[in-house]
Write the structure tokens for this entry.
Amino acid sequence: MRRVEFIQPAAVGVLGGLVMSLAFGAGGSRADGEAAKPPALPAGVSQVLYELAVPEGPPEAARIALGDKLFNDKRLSADDSTSCATCHDPAKGFVDHKPQSEGIAKQRGQRNSPTVLNAMFNASQFWDGRAATLEDQAKLPILNPIEMGQKSPEDVVAKLKGLPDYPELFQKVFGREIDYDDMAAAIAAFERTQFSGDAPFDRFILGDSNAISVKAKRGWALFNGKGRCNECHAFSLANPLFSDQKFHNIGIAAHKTDFAERAKRALGVVKSGDLKQIDELALQSDLSELGRFLVTKRQNDVGAFKTPTLRNIAATGPYMHDGSLNTLWDVMDHYNKGGVANPYLDGGIQRLGLSEAEIDDTVAFLETLTSPGVAKFATEEMTKQRAKRTVRPERDEATAMGRKGNLGDLAPNPDLKNPAEIGFFTVGSEGGRK
Ligand code: HEC
Ligand code: HEC
């Protein structure tokens, strides 16, 4: 078997040094004292990505604790009803398990809540990437009328100043009075501790061939072969998130959208760069389904959404930007029939011709991406999903098998002799990609 190596230490050293000098060279001072020692990262968490995500090293414990408290505090919302954790429950994989999230006064938005686990590594935040950083992201839900409902940053700051615990905590961590940016910085510091790895798959890819079942090994091969999943959800040790961090139209929004009419309307309304306006359109209007187009106004972004991470996917259903797919079997049925036709469908989405057994194998592989912290919960969720396995609204076997509709070529059956070597690049070797 090919030896799997981690990123060469020398490369990390150079990159790490560069990042550090950029961070400190720009005058970045720390009000809260010395950088803590970097944590030991579990398998499946990339050292390179970690250093990019946390350039100054992990923040001190008091800042993380303040962020944790803010994340879980309903008093951040206008009517004390909703915290970040309401929609990103730390005990349940940091999601809410609703198709679309509900904010204050039970108002429902247009989108499904993504997990905060590993969000620290996202190249951009939100399904359409409208926020660049965790800090920018955190400032939006608090001010969104249907999420946490505060009117302005000043209102939030005034409310926090009036609570008994916060003034002293902010003073201690930031050395000054409460302000909105510092609040976002504390929340982001907490989120930057929420990396998650050490899944059975991680042990498998590092050489423990008993870490996952035979079924899951076949699924891993299908994932990189006949299933074509790695076109967008590729895995490597340097980028172990199973996401290309790009935006694709895979035909989810096409279920319910006349794209042309909406795109035309959006061009008249959207003020480019107005993050708050785009946030409200994305969560509260029927223009939501335009996806990335709301941010870029580029035609080939119509109906395109960010490729999400697949880590902990067994714990974070229902699926897709609108929560419209209930189970991983529904997800597989969607891909198997080549998505839903629309003028902007990504070229990578074609019928797959997967048999029922091959679908089960791929789902078994997806289940191996579960980290220990959510394992118990994921098992419960998958028991519920399995019970629904006979209800298959997305299934269209005739199209999937090429008996009707698009007759595109199928991807070749993968070489099953050594699934561990398929479809991922070993840094420092010739690479294992076919
Ligand atoms: C009412 C439910 C709700 C609340 C409250 C809420 N979120 Fe979210 N969160 C969502 C939804 C829905 C999305 C996806 C929205 C979109 O992409 O348009 C999201 C997206 C995110 C993302 C982006 C993840 C990714 O993979 O792109 C992060 C990070 C996040 N929220 C953190 C927070 C934080 C921090 C707070 C509190 C300050 C918060 N959320 C409050 C529902 C909520
Ligand atoms: C062309 C790129 C592309 C390919 C190929 C692809 N995906 Fe995706 N995947 C995406 C995008 C983009 C989304 C989000 C789409 C949306 O919400 O509209 C997604 C969403 C998902 C989700 C839901 C994640 C969540 O948190 O809701 C799962 C599960 C998934 N894909 C698994 C797979 C599997 C398994 C395959 C192969 C059978 C596959 N994908 C092939 C791009 C792709």
About this structure: The first strand starts at residue 247 and ends at 248. The two ends are 16 Å apart (CA to CA). The chain has two domains: 12-191, 200-257+303-421. Residues 227-229, 231-233, 248, 250, 252, 305, 307-308, 310, 313, 316, 319-321, 331, 335, 346, 348-349, 362 surround heme C (ligand 2) (CB under 6 Å).
